[in-house]
């Protein structure tokens, strides 16, 4: 099938730098896009051509509505749209606008997995975000928490993190309790200050609308009407994870983030996050979202560094004698997904532990 799309004024941003967005559409959909003086010619399978046509129409609609995403943002949006036929450029921009109400910086998924993560947080009361550094697990969770509070869906935000790896020996640190835990919660603070005006963040911290709660002091509490985020969950013990998960009260939502490849516990096999992934995979109302190195949104070097470390780990796990398989001590790959009866959640696979 072949169609010709009209070249409308200010259409050039859709092409991207050095036509990178057009190349992305060609590679993802298997179409051929030719720029002519009078029109944009698209050739390929009927469904693929219609998807390209819809992208052009949506971009024109957004432009007329005053939405002008910069090239990097548009390129990320196109990746999400091309990865899922059910998502359109317009629906993605609309959902981003709704999530960004009252936030200084827009909340925009930059990969298909990030989009599933945001959808899961909206649809479930408990979500696990698991994956390597730089995939946006913590940042997006904080953004969704601020958006939920701005929309009056919850009245407070509670930030939780294991303070000193597994031991949480806060008494050995100088200063008050707040001063003891602040260094360990700095990534969460950074996200808050990036999303909101500093004065507003300071005021919410002062009024305890945003609460910093060391994991060691969560026992016995019931957290009602709150958006709770636990970061670095891979460094919790089994007992700590169970204790945290059972704090959830009425009208509350919990997001647990962690990276099972960076466990700092003396015995990594005792990680509460790893156990929770295995135990709770079929519990209705809980969603698991796994990120991969392709979801990394930091500097491009971060993606290469993580891949290099993963390659090293794979080489170390290879048996020396191919004739005699050796026991690596790793648990088998586990299929991780939302509860069997929960709708709209993504089914992912956990990496070997």
SSE layout:
Layout: E1 2-6, H1 12-15, H2 20-29, E2 32-35, E3 39-43, H3 46-64, H4 71-83, H5 89-99, H6 112-123, E4 126-130, H7 137-150, E5 156-160, H8 177-181, H9 186-195, H10 198-206, E6 210-212, E7 226-230, H11 238-245, E8 253-258, H12 272-279, E9 286-290, H13 300-317, E10 335-336, E11 348-349
Parallel strand pairs: 4-8, 4-9, 5-6, 5-7, 7-8
Antiparallel strand pairs: 1-3, 2-3, 10-11
Helix pairs in contact: 2-4, 6-7, 7-9, 11-12
What does this structure look like?
This protein is α/β, with parallel strands linked by helices and 353 residues long. The protein has helices at residues 12-15, 20-29, 46-64, 71-83, 89-99, 112-123, 137-150, 177-181, 186-195, 198-206, 238-245, 272-279, 300-317, and strands at residues 2-6, 32-35, 39-43, 126-130, 156-160, 210-212, 226-230, 253-258, 286-290, 335-336, 348-349. Helix 7 (137-150) packs across helix 9.
């Amino acid at each position: 099938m072949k169609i010709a799309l009209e070249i409308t004024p200010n259409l050039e941003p859709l092409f991207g730098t050095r036509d990178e967005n057009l190349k992305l559409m060609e590679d993802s959909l298997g179409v051929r896009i030719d720029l002519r003086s009078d029109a944009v010619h698209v050739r390929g399978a009927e469904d693929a051509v219609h998807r390209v046509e819809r992208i052009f129409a949506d971009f024109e609609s957004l432009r007329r509505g005053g939405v002008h995403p910069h090239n990097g943002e548009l390129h990320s949006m196109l990746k999400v749209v091309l990865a899922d036929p059910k998502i359109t450029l317009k629906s993605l921009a609309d959902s981003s606008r709704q999530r960004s109400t009252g936030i200084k910086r827009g909340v925009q998924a930059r990969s298909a997995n990030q989009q599933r993560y945001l959808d899961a947080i909206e649809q479930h009361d408990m979500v696990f975000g698991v994956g390597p550094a730089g995939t946006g697990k913590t940042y997006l969770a904080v953004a969704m928490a601020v958006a939920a509070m701005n929309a009056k869906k919850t009245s407070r935000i509670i930030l939780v993190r294991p303070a000193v790896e597994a031991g949480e020996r806060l008494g050995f640190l100088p200063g008050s309790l707040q001063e003891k835990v602040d260094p360990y919660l700095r990534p969460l603070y950074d996200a808050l200050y990036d999303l909101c005006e500093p004065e507003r963040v300071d005021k919410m911290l002062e009024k305890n609308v945003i609460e910093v709660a060391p994991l060691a002091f969560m026992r016995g509490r019931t957290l009602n009407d709150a958006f709770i985020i636990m970061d670095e969950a891979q460094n919790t013990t089994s007992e700590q994870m169970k204790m945290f998960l059972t704090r959830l009260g009425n009208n509350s939502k919990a997001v647990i983030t962690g990276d099972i490849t960076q466990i700092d516990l003396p015995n990594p096999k005792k990680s509460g996050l790893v156990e929770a992934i295995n135990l709770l995979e079929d519990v209705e109302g809980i969603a698991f979202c796994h990120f991969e190195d392709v979801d990394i949104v930091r500097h491009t070097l971060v993606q290469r560094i993580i891949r290099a470390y993963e390659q090293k780990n794979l080489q170390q796990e290879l048996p020396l004698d191919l004739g005699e398989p050796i026991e690596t001590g790793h648990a088998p790959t586990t299929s991780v997904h939302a509860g069997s009866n929960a709708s709209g959640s993504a089914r992912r696979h956990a990496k070997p532990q």
